[in-house]
Design a protein that fits this description.
Length: about 500
């Protein structure tokens, strides 16, 4: 079982640092990626004259200098991708599936090196980096399987004017996918877009996050190695004007974006008539009912709020506890927060590594400071551990107000707030009192409360007796309100990237 964020259940953590992991891991080979854009089947280190420096997030050393693409290079990529549509469409499902299996084999072969690359460019603790790569293998193999069974459906029309006729649909690739991806899962969230596109037969033009782009370029090298058709995949970094060309160009059939709500909704506003899938952020909540195993829930919630320093869109941020068990759970949770280890992401025991950059590190500290100044209590953390390396302590706050940023905005850091509620219905109302609605965790042994949560919570997914950070890569994943549009998960993304065509005879 693999997770976006943390635990599969209250007692078992997938890829938790306490698992039996080696203290050292093979350093990534320079052959994993090139310091160049990949455009129309060729690597080029030419660009607009500016470069994006990628640094080791813990040590501060330079990993690579990647060129920023010109508008002409983006035009070349889009034109080549558009021209490759017919070639991809003619590939059989079996051919697409076989290429995906070969890609999964390569990822598996290079798993250690890819995990180390994620540690270095993203600052992700090694246990979770290894977990991400393991998820990547599952993501690609699932896409390979879905490619074989992704067809259409028979349509019931044998009545009225349709008597004696047969109708069915076949799904066809929609065209070029413009993909923009974030830093926090630098390989698997790229594959959430690339793998279903490959399974359907859609070309992809990808712009990864500038903070952690190297895994995406490693993927490009692997696609080249397996012989994915020239022109069907492109990856480059760019400034905003060039990136907006990718968004606005009419030859792009669909924009798939994962990132902040502010940027996502702006891109939707300027993208024209194309399809849009937005996987955005949130201030995810968990409800603790009075019949819950509190000790196990506290372990899971603490990890769910703080793994990868809380830098996941479904990191547990708001915790609502039924009053009768609030004090007991609060004390258990504060203890779990205090026991989480922060520091070097190469240390297998570390859960909380560095924040991705200085700007986000300072913002998190200022939001906590604002809350404390406004009357919030610090139950754990509340301070920087290593300001030079952007490491902030796992922080738990109480007595916050709804309007505080740590409550109503997305912290995207190792910070959570806890609040007592009178009963389960009040907890639901508190969860729904948000501009976001991605996922929610509900700890309860009541079937009635489980059904009530499913009916009333305004979120894309409800996770029973686990944290909102639970994610299996095949499940339909996405949110409502400011948390986005559409659903990821291999089959569901493939549906977004294709269109049904009806035949009646």
């Amino acid at each position: 079982m693999t997770l976006q964020c943390c635990s599969a259940n209250a007692a078992t953590f997938a890829f938790h640092p306490s698992l039996n992991m080696p203290n050292t891991i093979t350093a990534p080979s320079p052959a994993l990626f090139q310091q160049a854009s990949y455009i129309n089947g060729l690597w080029t280190n030419e660009g607009d004259g500016t470069f994006n420096t990628v640094i080791d997030k813990y040590h501060g050393t330079e990993l690579a200098r990647m060129p920023n693409a010109t508008e002409a290079q983006m035009e070349e990529a889009i034109a080549a991708a558009y021209a490759s549509r017919d070639m991809l469409r003619k590939l059989s499902a079996g051919e697409r599936s076989a290429k995906l299996h070969t890609l999964a084999d390569l990822i598996e072969e290079r798993a250690d090196a890819l995990a180390q690359l994620i540690v270095q460019e993203g600052g992700k603790p090694i246990g979770y980096a290894k977990g991400e790569v393991a998820r990547c293998i599952v993501t690609v193999r699932t896409a390979a399987a879905e490619a074989l069974r992704f067809t259409g459906e028979q349509v019931a029309i044998d009545y009225g004017a349709g008597v004696g006729k047969t109708a069915f649909t076949k799904r066809f690739p929609i065209g070029v996918i413009g993909a923009i991806t974030p830093f926090n899962f630098p390989l698997n969230l790229v594959l959430h877009k690339v793998a279903p596109a490959m399974a359907v037969g859609c070309p992809v033009v990808l712009k990864p996050a500038p903070q952690a782009p190297l895994s995406a370029f490693a993927l490009a090298a692997m696609l080249e190695e397996i012989g994915w058709p020239k022109g069907a995949f492109h990856v480059m970094l760019s400034g905003i004007p060039v990136a907006e060309k990718l968004v606005k160009d009419e030859r792009i059939a669909m924009l798939s974006f994962t990132g902040s709500d502010k940027v996502g909704w702006h891109l939707k506003a300027i993208c024209g008539k194309k399809k849009v899938a937005l996987e955005l952020g949130g201030n995810a909540s968990v409800i603790i009912d009075e019949d819950t195993d509190l000790a196990n829930a506290a372990k899971a919630v603490a990890m769910g709020a703080n793994l990868y320093a809380g830098q996941t869109c479904i990191s547990t941020q708001r915790i609502y506890v039924v009053k009768s068990v609030h004090d007991q759970f609060r004390d258990l949770l504060a203890k779990e927060f205090g026991e989480l280890k922060s520091g070097d992401p190469n240390d297998p025991a570390v859960s909380v590594g560095p924040i991705i950059d200085k700007g986000h590190f300072e913002r998190i500290g200022s939001w906590v400071g604002e809350a404390v100044k406004g009357g919030a209590n610090v139950l754990a953390g509340g301070k920087a551990i290593d300001a030079e390396r952007n490491i902030y302590a796992a922080t738990l706050l109480s007595h916050t107000k709804p309007e505080m940023k740590v409550n109503c905005a997305e912290v995207f850091g190792p910070v959570a707030v806890i609040e007592a509620v009178t009963d389960f219905r009040e907890a639901i109302a508190k969860v729904n009192d948000s501009n976001y609605g991605l996922q929610a965790g509900v700890y309860t042994n009541s079937i009635a409360h489980m059904k009530l949560a499913h009916e009333e919570l305004e979120v894309g997914g409800i996770i029973i007796n686990s944290i909102p950070g639970f994610r299996i890569d095949s499940m339909p994943y996405g949110g409502v309100k400011d948390s986005g549009l559409g659903r990821e998960g291999l089959k569901y993304a493939m549906e977004e990237m294709s269109e049904p065509r009806l035949i009646v005879y």
